[in-house]
Amino acid sequence: xxxxxxxxxxxxxxxxxxxxxxxxxxxxxxxxxxxxxxxxxxxxxxxxxxxxxxxxxxxxxxxxxxxxxxxxxxxxxxxxxxxxxxxxxxxxxxxxxxxxxxxxxxxxxxxxxxxxxxxxxxxxxxxxxxxxxxxxxxxxxxxxxxxxxxxxxxxxxxxxxxxxxxxxxxxxxxxxxxxxxxxxxxxxxxxxxxxxxxxxx
Length: 201
Known about the structure:
This protein is of the alpha/beta class and about 200 residues long. Helices cover about 35% and strands about 15% of the residues. It has helices spanning about 50-65, 75-80, 85-95, 130-150, 160-165, 170-180, and strands at about 10-20, 25-35, 65-75, 105-110, 120-125. Strands 3-2-1-4-5 form a 5-stranded mixed beta sheet. The longest helix is centred in the last third of the chain and has 22 residues, at about 130-150.
């Protein structure tokens, strides 16, 4: 069972991101505030859940959370400020969307850029430890997956509906064959260590 809070009697928001290691598409983040007495035995790190369960839980989270928000940083912004800073910016944008200002932030990972004057705690693998971070991981993952499925319709050759923009062999082979799309992160090593080459289109 995941923990409902780190500090008692203050408003905590859990934050997590999705898509940091992808070659294409934006990075998404979510922030979630639950009541301190909240319990849900099904909530867990999004990577440990089936796709169906993630979408089922998204509906529950959005209904039962006190507040939730989604933040997005585009591929162009990622190329400009780098993926680490983009991940922090996506979290900031998610927090901006909250209807309630949190008093403390629970951040998945080991680094963060402070958000205004709000205190925070970084927690490695926090999405497997705290309910609010797990919920944020589910929202970030499902909303990003929806986005990748949508842009897959525009560029089906990259199979984003299947790989969600991650660096699979199939994805990199498509980049080598067809070049890069406007959704690719130009600052990333798009072909990995292969000897393939591509052109920007």
